[in-house]
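Model it.
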Amino acid sequence: MVDASSIYLAVTGVLLFVALGAGLHVLRGIVREGRDLRRRRRAGEAETYPEDEEYDPGPPAGPEDEYGRTTDPSDSGDPDAPTATCPQCGADNESGFDYCRRCAAPLGPAT
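Modeled.
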């Protein structure tokens, strides 16, 4: 007679093999995509480092946001807040940070 513990072990083993197979399938796809991207970069078909939309959002959306409120795209909060410019990439960073938000370079000694 088959007891419950052996059924449990068999079902658990089968589920583990299914999960392992699915995980290997996903990892194979990631590796394949990485190799394809590397090949396209070497051939000049893809950008080496594409711009991040957070730092290059493109043109402003307009005077109204999606809710109809009037907005000023150049307004990023407190206009009197001091900023620190990164010596390496030139990005503006809020004061009080030790490292650049874009390239993670040190911003210099704390003032």
